[in-house]
Structure formats: structure tokens, C-alpha cells
Amino acid sequence: MQFSATQIAMIIGGKVEGNGDIAVASFGKIEEAKEGQLAFLANPKYEEFLYSTKASIIIINETQELKQPVTATLIKVPDAYTSFAVLLDKYQQIQRQQLSGIQQPVYIDATAKTGENVFIGAFAYLGQNVIVADGAKIYPNVFLGNNVIVGENTIIHPGVKIYHDCVIGKNVVIHAGTVIGSDGFGFAPQADGTFKKVPQIGNVIIEDGVEIGANATIDRATIGSTLIKSGAKLDNLLQIAHNVEVGNNTVIAAQSGVSGSTKIGNNVMIGGQAGIVGHINIGDGAKINAQSGVSKSLEAGKAVTGSPAHDYTAALRSQAASRKLPDMEKRIQELEKQIAALREKKEIL
Predict the structure, then answer these.
(1) What is the largest CA-CA distance in the chain?
(2) How far is CA 101 from CA 97, 115, 136, in A?
(3) Angle at which helices 325-348 and 312-323 pack, to 10 degrees?
(4) Using an 8 Å Cβ cutoff, are 37 and 24 in contact?
(5) Is 15 helix (H, G, I), strand (E, B) or coil?
(6) Catalytic site residues?
């Protein structure tokens, strides 16, 4: 597929400077791009390559000042990084639209329903009463248990397992190897020291526009639903326990874990390898630094770090003070010597 600079500018709302008819067929990093490729410049660190790249078209910020002549056709936009993301998304949509039909072999129960322009990859399994809505893409080796619902234009990558009764919204992306709806970790201790399993009879609901990385695990609720709200973005290798709620547009980085029944608000940012205990509330807009251990509820907008997690600004002050400790130790030793000398002088007098 080829697109001209004029066509690309129309997609991203940019202004062309140079040859609007020049076309590209692929993408490249600005420092490595070749003729016939499109690149972008958003980070000033790479500005030097703007004047030496062989890319045919470059997307740049409209505020970018040119210090030398540029051979490529430029498309100026308010935010080059966002515009490039929009363009990649459009390109990916075009590619995905070419995927349709049902490959063989697959198992689709007689009670399952699939919409229009659906793709079902080889060795997929669709159980009883499964619904796959229009435009959804189910890649090979996906398991959809009984009564699972998959919304319009949702993409489920290879090897994903979605247990019975779970609901996946529209425009969701779930990457390879993720498991949704496995049993929550519920065991009741018994008098004889054993543990009795508490049946997990709820489900998982993933709302519209969510993206979930590879090899994540989202447990079904004991009763009710584990809920991932619209626009949330979850990284690879996460553990989301039973009855957790993740708010709208919240982002959680890789290897983090959230224990049961914790409620995470909207627009929260959680760094990699963070751990959050169960039955607490994380307020809207809170920020949890990487490798933090959160053991109590956080108010809206709070930023924390460390294990146990504490105020982020106070932690930075503590770190700054700790770096001064070696110098402080030397000063204290010098003061001790001066005091000892004064005492000795006083005794002589």
C-alpha cells in the first residue's frame, strides 16, 4: 500500500511543505529511514537526523524551527508523536480489515453466533452461546468458554484463554497468552490446618477501548464481577485478583499485582513491579512509583514510592539528604576533634 503526502496530511490534519504527490509504502526511524519511507521527529534529541535522513516524508511539530535545508517533504502537525500514532493505527486497521473468514480446523458450537467481517483463526474454540460481534478478530488457538461475549472490532491474539461468562467490550485488544476469568484465589482456613476452596462464581467484565498485554492474568470475581473500565491500559505479566476494579484510563506497567477487592480510580498511573494489597481504595489520579508496595488506601492525586509506599516528595527529600551523609559524617568527626581539643586546652588552663 502506498500513500501520498497529501493523503497522509488529510488523515492526521497536517500541513504539507514540499512535494505533496510523493508517496511512501512503509515506515522507518528517522536515523535509519530510506527513500520511500515515512519517519517522524518528536524528540529534539534526534533533530540532527532531520537534515541527513533519506526518508521521503517526515512528520514534525509545527513549532519545529529548521536550521538547515531539508530534502524530505514535511508534514507539520501540532503534536508529531500523537499524529504518528494515529497514522500507525489507521495503517493497522487497513491491514486487519483484510483478515476475515473462518479458518479450519476450528470448533464453533452450534449455539455460538458470529457477526459480519469476523475472523476466526485455526484451532480456535468457541463454546456454547458465545457471541463474537461484527469486525472482531479471533486469532489461532484462542479459547472462548461458554457464554463469553466479544464486542465489535475487538482483537484477541493467539493463545488467549477467556473463561465462561466473561464479557469483553468493543475495540478491546488482548495480547497473546493472557488468561481472563480464571478462579480468584479464595481458600478458607479449616480447624485441621487445611484450606477449603471458596467457589468463584462471578465473572470478568472488560469495557470498551481497553488494551491488555501478553501473559496477563485477570481473575474472575468470587461473586459479582472483576471490572476493567473503559480506556484502561494494562501491560504484560500482570496479576489482577478477584473483585478488583480498575478505573477509566488507568495505566498499569508490567509485573505489577493487585490483590482482591481493591478499587483503583480513574487516570491512575502504576509503575512496573508495584504491589497493592487487597480491600483498599486508590483515588483518582494517584501515581504509584515502580516497585512500590502499597498497603493502605491513597487519596486522589497522591504520589507515592517505596515499600511500604510513602509520599513521593518526602521520599525525594530523604534521598537527597542521604546522599549528604558521608560529608556530614566527616564534618561531625572534625567537630568532635575540635571539641576534644577545646576540652584538653581547658583542662591545661
Answers:
(1) 107
(2) 11, 11, 11
(3) 50
(4) yes
(5) strand
(6) 242
Question: Which pTM was predicted?
Answer: 0.81
Place of cell 513521593: 312
> How much is the pLDDT for 349?
60
Domain 3-97: homologous superfamily in CATH: MurE/MurF, N-terminal domain (3.40.1390.10)
Q: Name the CATH superfamily housing domain 160-308.
A: Hexapeptide repeat proteins (2.160.10.10)
Burial of 115 (0-12, 13-18, 19+ CB in 10 A): middle
Q: What is the pLDDT of residue 248?
A: 98
Q: What SS3 class is residue 173?
A: strand
More confident residue, 29 or 322: 29
How would DSSP label each residue in 204-227? EEE-TT-EE-TT-EEEPPSSSEEE
Cα-Cα-Cα-Cα dihedral sign, residues 89, 95, 101, 106: negative
Is it the case that residue 319 has pLDDT exceeding 90? no
* Contact criterion met (CB below 8 Å) for 119 and 100: yes
**Which residue type does 36 have?**
G
Which candidate, 202, 211, 197, 304, places its Cα nearest to that of 244? Answer: 202
* CB 228 within 8 Å of CB 218: yes
The answer to whether 120 and 137 are in contact (CB under 8 A) is no
Q: Is 70 exceeded by the pLDDT of residue 121?
A: yes
pLDDT tens column, 54-66? 999 999 999 999 9
Q: Is a pLDDT exceeding 80 seen at residue 117? A: yes
d(CA 303, CA 287): 5
Span 149-153, average pLDDT? 97
